[in-house]
Each structure stands twice: as C-alpha cells, then as structure tokens.
Queue: 3 jobs
Job 1
Amino acid sequence: MKKLSTTLKLSVLEAMAFNAFFVATQTFIIISIALYFNASPFQISIISSFPVFAQMFQVFTPLIYKLFGTRKKSLIIVSIIGRGSLVLLPIIVLLNIRNSHIFVMIMILYAFFGTFISNIWTAAMRELVPFEDRGKYFGMRNVFASAIGILATYLYSQFLDFPNEKMGILLVTSIMALFAVITIILLAFHKIPEICETSQNELKIKKAFQDKKFQTFLVFVGIWTFAIELTRPYFSYFQVAILHINTTFLGKMSVITGIISLVLYPFYGKLSDRYGNKSILMIGISLATIAPLLYFVMTDYNYRSLLLLDSVFSAFAWAAINLTFFNLLLETISEPAENYVAAYALTSGVTAIIASNIGGFFGNILKDKTFYILGDKYHGIQLLIFAGFLLRIYALLHLTNVEAYEKPIRYKSWLLSNPSLFKRREISLPIYLKIFRGKKLKKK
C-alpha cells in the first residue's frame, strides 16, 4: 500500500472518534438508554432501523450539493446538523426529561442527516482509495476504530452499571456528544475531491437500477437488510429487558468481540484482496447465522456460556461483514458513484422501514408472551429471533448470485498434500474387498 495522504490519515482518526460514540448507538448500550427514556419495543425497533431506512433519502444528495455549493461544504453542514444533534442527549438527561418521543426524534435527526454524510463520504473514499489498496486500508482503519470502540464500550458498560442510573446515562451521553463534535472538526480538515457540475446536480438513479450486475447485488441487499432489521434490537432487548443481564458482563463480552475483531480486520483485509470481497463476505454471513440459534436456546441458566460463544462467533462474522460489505458495494458500482450509492440506499431504506415496522409490531405482541415446545419454555422474542436465522440463510443463498471478483479458497495442509496417504488407501481397498468376498464365500 502506498504512503497515505493527509486526508486518509485524518480519516483514520475520524473513524476512531466516530466509533467512540457510534458503539453507544448499538447493542445493549442504546437499549439501556432507550429504556431510561421509557421507549417501547416498537420505538426501539424504529430507532435501531432508522439509520438504514434513512439511506433512501440519499437520492436527494444532489439537492444538498445544489443548496450548499460544494461536496466539502455539504459534508460539513450535514455533519453539524446530524452529529451535532447528539449534544441534545446529555442536556435532556440533565434536565430530567425522560420523554421517549423526544429521545426518538433526536435519534431520527441524527440518522437522517447521517445518511447524507455516508453518501458523500462513500463517493469521496472511492476516489481517494485505489481499488487494489482498499482491503488493506479499510482493514487498518477498522483496527484503530475497533480499538477505540473496545475501550468506549467497556467504559459505557461501567457507567450504565452505576447505582445512580441518571448519572450513568449522563456520562454515556456526554461522551457521545463530545466525540460527535470531534468528528465534525476532523472532517473539516479533510480534502474532499469535488465532482463536475453535471453529476453534481443530476442523480440518474434509474440507470443504476437498470444495471443487471447491480440488480443482483440489490436483491441480496434487500433480503439481507430485511433479515437484520427485523430482529436488530431484539438481541440486546432480550439481554437487558428479559434476562436482566448485568451491563458490566455484557461490556466484557463486547470487549472480547472487539479484541478478536482487532486481530481479524487486517487478516480479512489481506484475504479480501487475495480471494475477493464476495468470498470473505460469504464466510462472514455463514458465521452470522449462528447467533440467532444461540439466542433461541438461551435461558437464565446458560446465558453466560452462550454469550461467550456468541461474542467469539460474532467477532469472526461481523469483522468479515463490516469490512467486505462496503468494499463489495464499491466493486459493483460504476460512475457516477452517487447514482449507485443512492440506489443501494433506497433499496436498503425501503426494506429497513418495512422490516422494522414488522419487527416492532411483533415485538410489542410477543414481549410478554411465552411458548412451550416439547415442554421447553421459550420467550416470544426468541421466536422472532429464530425467524431472523432463517432469513439470514436465505440471504446467503442469494449472495452466491452476485457478480464480483472471487478466487476459490482451498484448504492446504500436510494431510491433503501428502500423496502417500491416498496411495495407502488405494492399496488397502482391494484387501478389504478380498476379506469381504472371503466372508461371503464361507457363508455359501
């Protein structure tokens, strides 16, 4: 990989600051914050999936360019509005405002403008990072981001375990707000390449949908997004609201996942450059199907060992998915990139809002239900999670149809490379046949 430019170095720092507050919008941390504001399962489902749903508004990115003039200026302004909205969280906690509607509106504002940040940033990175270096660069970038994420997750879990609930939530939201502001400052120093006026003001999304190669990718994206968004918040909801698992323990499990991911990111980065993003993504999704099964059989008595297994498998699964999914998107799109990113965002957004509404509807119904299968007790939320398992497998099957660079991964070892082992089998086989025939003759 060539020497990094100043912007790409700053992008690594921005990723670290971003992950420091982003981890608090995920898993048990955001569920704990949401429950503090008395949010219902349906509201939790909406705020969990809205970042994906909001991606569909990326089709209006040209209007953002037209309104603010340049790509760089557009990026900064939407960052100030979107990420800056998180500053409101510690303020309403300090004022003792525990209104779920206000909390949901803040998170929606953050997600809505975050989608424009994503679109502009993705298009810029495609131009700044050469194709042959993307796996290594983003692998390295994710290592540093994950390291900060590990530390932040551990700190958040400790704060959430404070006897004084308000103080714990205040500390978590204050740190979120601080790092959100830091990312805005770092983005201000990025040198973002500009685009020509024609592509700046026109977004021909129809062209992207007519691209046969990209169509196949979008079908996979739709199924995968539906599978994830249907059950996204309910893994953590099951942990916190139903099993009442200590947040310190959950934080330790997240640290284990983060440390393993830290090692895997550069490893997967090299593998994706060698074997292709699609091959590594298939491995990741295959491993991601394990988590729903673990949660389906999880109880008050075995959750510790199963969460440990989940933390390990999730690290192997999501390190591969987080790294290669973005790269596979870049690999399947053509110029102008904004058209394809917007088409991808529209597909993800529509699917996400449908999935989150369905998930929220069933979540409200099943939250207090229990079922018995062959005498074994299951919580209603576990049935919803099991549906997610089936959908993840269905998405994996569709990924095989996506056209992308892939090199078969073959296992090489002494066992398979030693021809004498197979020679012995060839020599021994007739002996077994003779013995078998001999027994038959004796019977006759």
Job 2
Amino acid sequence: MGSLGQIVVQWPQEYTLKTNEPLAQDCVTFVCLSISGRLNPALLEEKHRELVKHWPVLGGDLVTNKTPYHMTTGSRVDFKYRTVEPKLKDVSPLDFKLTPAEFSGDKPLIRPYRTGDGILGMADLFFDTLSASNLAVGSLFAIRVTLLQDATILAFKFSHFFVDGEGCYDIIHHYNELLLGGELPKGVPPPGIEKKLSEMITGEDTGQVAAPEHGGWEYIRNWCQVGLAGFVRVIAQGIYQEYAVKLGLTEPGVEKHIYLPPKFIQGLQNSCQKEIDQLAKETGENFKLSKLDVVNAWWVKKIYSSSRESLFLSLGYALNFSNRIPKNFGEKYFQSHYIALYIPLGTVGEVKRESLAQLALKIRKHVTVAKQPSVVKDNLEFLESIQGQKIIPLPKGGESEGAPLFSSWNRFPFEKLQFGAALEPGSAPGLGKVLFNNSRIILPLNISWKPKVLFFNDSNGGMWCQCMQLSSYWRDFEDISEYGH
C-alpha cells in the first residue's frame, strides 16, 4: 500500500494483465548509462528506496510458474554498487568518443565492440542480477552502480514482460527527477489488470485501411509463429549456433556500432524526400519520410547487398501505441504499450532494384497503416487470443536471416538526462552528463538474434546503431571507416 497526501492507493500483492506480449515474457532489458564524474552511491540508493516506496510495482518479482506470467509488488530495493580502479576509457566495451571532425562530418563510421580482460561486459556491469544462462528474470527492476576513477556506470535492469522501452525510460527519467529534488506523479496499478488493451484503444482511422494481402497489416497473425514447438526449435538452434561457433563449424555473430553524423542523416533524408515529392506529383500520395525511415532503408540495402536474391525480407519493428490509450492527468502506471510489426519488404532482388527512397517509402506506408486505431486493435485482439503461449518473430516459411529486428530507442532522450545533483561532494562543475547509452535486450540463454539493430541518439544530434550480425555481413560495410583499422 502506498500513499500520496490523503489519497490511498491499493496495490495488489500479485497480478497479471489481460494483454501481455508473449515475445517479451522471458527477456530482460538492460539500460546502461556512462556518466561523467563519480556519483554518490548513498544518494542513489536513497532515491531508489523512495522510488520503490512510491511505486511498489518496482519492488516486485516476475512469477513464471503461472500462465500467463504474474508479477508481484513489494518493498525490495535491488540495489548494489562497487568501485573499480580504472578510468572509463580503459574498461568501456566501446570507444564512443568522437572528434569534432567525426561528428560534424557527412560519412558514417564504425566502432568495434571490445571484449576480453579488463573490459566490463554485461555480466560485469549487472553483477549479481544477470545469471549465466539468463533463465531466471527475478526482480522486475534493479540498479547496479560501478564507480570508476573518472566516471560512473549506472546500469538499470527491467523485466521486458513488465515494461517496454518507453516504460524503461519513464522510470529512469523519474528516478533522475528524484535525484534533482523533484516529485513523482501519483502511482496507480495498471488498468490492464481489469481490462484488455484492445478495449481501451481510442480514435478513428485517418487513412484507408484496405483488406490485408500477403500478410498486410495482420502483422502478428501472419509474421509470427505460435506454439512451443517453434520456440523450442529456435532455442535449440541458438544453443547449437553457440557451440558450432566455438568448434569453428559456423561463423560467429559480431557486434559493432555504426555512428551516423547529423549531416549524413539529413543528407539521406533530403535526397529521399526530394524523390518522393516528385513521385507525389504523379500519384497524389503525400508522405513525409522520418529519419528512421531512411536510416532503416539504408541499413537494409547495405547489409543484404551481397545476399542471394531469392531471400525474402521481413523487417521487424516495435510500434508504440500509448497515445491511443486514455490516461488520467497526474497519474502514472507501468504497462507495455507496443506491438511487433513485421513489414514485408519483398525479396533481396526486389529491394536491390528499388531506390533508397522507394524502400523508405514502403516502410513509411506500413508504419502509417500500423498506427491506425483499427489496425492496432486487430493486432491486440489476436495477441490476446494467444496469451501464455510461446511465439517467435519469424515469418511463416521465412528464415531468421531475412528477418532483421529493429528497435528505435532514439525516441527516448537518455542523452539529455542530468545527474549533476548526485555527484560526490567536491566534484568539479560540469560533470554528471550522460556520455553514452549502451542498452540492450537479452534473450533466454543469452541467445543473440541476428541481424538486430538498436538505435540511440547522441548529444551531437547524430545516431548510434548498435548492430549484431554475422561476421560475413560486415563485409558489405567495408567502405565505412572503422576505428583501429
């Protein structure tokens, strides 16, 4: 039970939701912020306690022996910190520092992801909360702090079943507000305990929604496989791949980060939009391409430029629909509001013959349709019909090789958070800034889905693309300058 003034909020001891995302139920989301200067761990823990006291859902656990999964509320503060001797540049998996010429230039660049002795990987940064096999999610929310000579790494862990990317950002944002001396909005249990999300969708379609063809807008129904057999097969394939790589029987997945300077992104967007505007004179269709439309199209063309032309591509996309759910002003609850889209792009051969602008337009058209209330509702209703079942993000008859997953974390301005108020006493002015965001979603058994891209903003207006793909796919990026090569 929590309170705010005279208002008493009744919190359930255990609950589940009438609409859950099966894809997320066994996954963990990690948000890892590198911050300039050393933060005060006592203050960080104190504000963590305040956060849990105000929102008891943050003090609970994931209950996996019930179908669908349940969540508990509680008062547990899953917080730990430790101090290590080196500086950030010596232990960071990524050299994210850019020169003025690099972030103001018009060409992408690549930074390899470092591993090995002395480098702090996910298991190091999330000590005592990440199991070796990642089979037990445990607490819904945890904070791990690593104090370095010149910086602090703030590592936040979330059950992906509990919250989506927007929820992760909201919690961290409110935690940041507490550190700055701010107040929290009134916390309430999620409305999804009593009502299905499909029944909460508001608004009318603003565009035409034609009957779906070849998958069309029935994204989840046509572009995911439902059932334990497929799930077990994917897990088994993932385990095989891990051992096959160690034995040299198959190529490994390799993670690197691609930095796209603002000038490069703007150039892509301007040239593509010019072509689409010219096309609109003939078709009468007026579309404005977003930065992500053109970046996604650029990446797809790049990674599959040497693939066999018969390979069918289905771009995986997470669409947030929280703007379609009515909310009470001054209240805050945590519940995922996203659906997975699998946009049919056609074969590699077809994608090669399309211009970059045409491919970006295809993506934009699907996103526009997917945002229509009737489409969101249809997909949610199907999702609600398979609650508790295992599903995998793979088109029927498709191949994982042709089903890249994209996650647009650039929607969340982590780079603007300020932690200066939480610095150790005596710290120099100007510290407490977020230097880099190294977030990721971890699958059971630490299996890596390939290809996969997460997008993050940087403070200079550019974009980092965290890419995991087979080593052979990186050959198509050899024209991009790579640090250290």
Job 3
Amino acid sequence: MLLAGALAGSTMAVTGTASAASGAAAVAVVPAGPGRELSTASFTQMTVDDAGRRVWIAGDRVHPDGSRRGEVIGVLHGGAGPAVASADMAAPLSGVAVDPTGSKVYAGQSDHIANYSHENGSLHPLDPIPAPADDCGRELVHTGGRLFFTSRAPASPEGCDDPVGIGSVGVAATADGDGAGEVMYSYTRVHLEGGPGGLLVTAPERWSPTDDPDLGIYRVTDGADGNVLEFLGERRFAEGGTGPGMDFRDADFSADGSVLAVADGVRGTVLLGGQDARFLDNPYAPLPEGVAPTAVAFSPDGKWFAQGGAGSGDAADLTVVFADPSVERQPLRIAFDDEEAGRRVVPRGMEFSGDGEQLFVVTSDQEGTKFWLHTIQTREALAPSSFVDVAHGPAIAGKPIRVTGRLDLDGLAPTEAPQVTVQRMAGPDVTDLPPVPVAEDGTFVLEDILPDRAGDVFYVLGYAGDEVHYRAEHWLHVTTAEASGTVTRGRR
C-alpha cells in the first residue's frame, strides 16, 4: 500500500499541517550527545552516499589567516577508507550531489560545477561541468540518472532575495550523449529535491511575505520528446489568494514517492501528494510549540519520518516517528542545546542512510558559524523489549531442565509471531538450540537436556526484534550438580 493511502485523505486547504504541539501529554526529551564538529564555517547542502558509505557536506572553511576556501567533505559511516575525505577549492562553495554508484561527487562553484571521481575516500578532479554564473548559492541534486543544478546571477550584489534578474535550473550532459541545458527559469532562488523513480521538486523562495511561490513536482524522462522533465503537479500554499505563501525550508519524498513532506517556516510540516501535489492530512505529531521547522526526512526503507527544527532550551529540536501513521507510538524527541552539540537543526540538514538505521543531522550554533554532524541510531525510536521472570527448575547433569520466562514487548503488538532464539554454552562447547515459540501472553518454556558433566552452563536467550520492537538478550547462568548416587572415581 502506498504511504499516501495510509494517510487520512486529502483536504481542500492546509488544515492538515502541523506546526506546534499544544495541550499534548508531556513526553520525554533526550538531550543530544556531542557530535562531530565540522571544519566548515558555513553549510549549504548535504547528501548521503550509500554506495560509498559517506555523508557529503558542502561549505566554506575559514583558515587562521582569515582566508576563505571552499571545502566538500565526506564523513565515513561504515565500510573502508579514511574517516573523512575532502577536497579543497575556491570559495564560495555551494551545493553537493553524488551519483548512485558513489563514484562521482559534484560541488557547486560560482562559474561551474566541480566534478570529482571518488573511490574509498580518495577524490580526483575531473573536467568541470559548464554552468551559468551563480552568485546566490547553488543547489545540486542527482535524480533519474541526471544531474540538476540551480544558477542565479542577481542584477545587483544585494539582489539575491529580490525578484530582479533571472535564475535557472539546469541539467548536465551525460556520457551517453544526453545534452545539457536549462530546463526552467525563475525570478527568485530555487531549491531542489530529488526522489525515487526520478522525481524532482522545484521550490522557489518567496521574495516577500505576501508572495506565493508555486512548488512544482516533475519526473525525469529519457528526453525522447525533447523534454527532460514531465510535469506532474504544482501547489501554491496560500488559501484562495489570502495569507502568506510557502516559506520553504526543506522537502523530502517518502520511500514510495507517494508523499512529499515540506518544512514550511509558517505552517510547520505540510504533506502533499508526491505525484500530483494535492494537500494531504498530516497525522504526524508536530514539533513542540516555539520550535521553528527547518528540515524533514523520510527513510529510504519506508520505516521512519523525521522533523527537525530550531528551538531553545530543552525543547525538542528533532522528532523521529514511524512513517506508517497507524503505528501509535510517542516520537523519539531529541534536544540540541549544548556547546558540543549545536543549538538547532540547520535548514535541509537531515538525511537517512539507505537502510534507515541511521539518521544524519547537521546542527549549528546560534550564530550559524560552527557546525556539527550527529548520527542518530533509529533503533532508539523502537519500542523496547526485554526478558523478565526467567527461572529454571532442577539442574542435574545429564538430565532434562525446564526454563521459563516472559518476553515483554512494550506497548505495541509484534508484527509477527515472536520466537526466542537459544544458545547453550558449556565450557568450550557452544550449541544452537531450536527456537522457542512465545505464547500470546508473552510466556515461553524451554526444555533441554543438560550436558553430562556437572559445572556451569549458560543459556543465551535472544529476541531478534521486529518492525516496531528493538532486539533483546538475556543470559541465564545455571550451575549443574551431579545426579545423586553417582559414583565419583577418586585417585588411588
């Protein structure tokens, strides 16, 4: 079932948005631990390379002598290679993208797109990709087998936020002979977001509070008809021409492409149909009151949805919930309010790993001059499971033993019939026993034959977890005795 079908229908207006939690029951907020401080003094864009197991971040670095250089860094999150890969180039640097194989990394510069080959953390420069001049900060995205990028040269040095001058969205040529060129034009800066199946979002910035820019959804084509993009739908956020327009902060598609989440500075999280841009009801718990929305992310495995923001004090700047709204569980809430963690989630500063097991979050200090990368293990948002009341009967060497206990699954029903895995350890001997079924009330019974030799035996009970529960493990220590009447041969 598409995620859009699991959401509570569509609405005619933006009544399905979520921006502040009021009157809700108090939930625990977890303080964030220290993150990895980044060397950049600015943040423009991030992307996750699942093939190369790296998080790529683009920005500028300020050196001790005050000089400024562009820097793209790739932080390893698994696999082999150096912990951090980097490339130095002219400032300003804005925008980063990676191809699906992880073998090419692209970074936006003012007069071209820098192009690097990548292998195990080593970056080697290739011929730059031509692009129109840009003085306002590029965004890059690789989707549908093509590299798209923004360009904007304002009419004046202060004109990046004014509706004067023309910006564009361009597409790079490919090795297969697909041509380069501009695919659309805009009077304001444009943000880009890619999605599954070659989906592409274009989101212009509003140049005044009364402006109502139109968000567009497209699909990348083979260009056989001369058009690289197929138009799917557009949406203006102001209702009937009244009220403020879209105040874009971030956007992301669900794993199946049926839902587009938009972080709007006025409304909070807005959900749209991923194929037609219609408004959808929003069943997700909003960020706390007073936390300004900055980022949204769906996990590519379809399991998680995250919202990031900028708050103060111990208010949660990050929430993580199940993407399927039918799974009723309180969100994992994390607050960033520490000199070693940052104070807020930066706009467009969240991405999941491909398997959904990690959420990468970029935070900054209040001034936006220092940045940290955090890795959130999504298992922390799973309901806990544990073994309780584990006990055993008489333990006689070579005789049957009976172990009983209960698997406690917090809050939610398991998504499949649970089983307990069992491993017996007796000295150097390790034996995997058949899994034990768990009854509806959580109880289980293990029956086994103890080793012939008396001594210490350990039973390792395990639960592998399910879609909504985290795994659990319990070690049971059993001291066995010789059977009564056993003749022990002594020394002569």
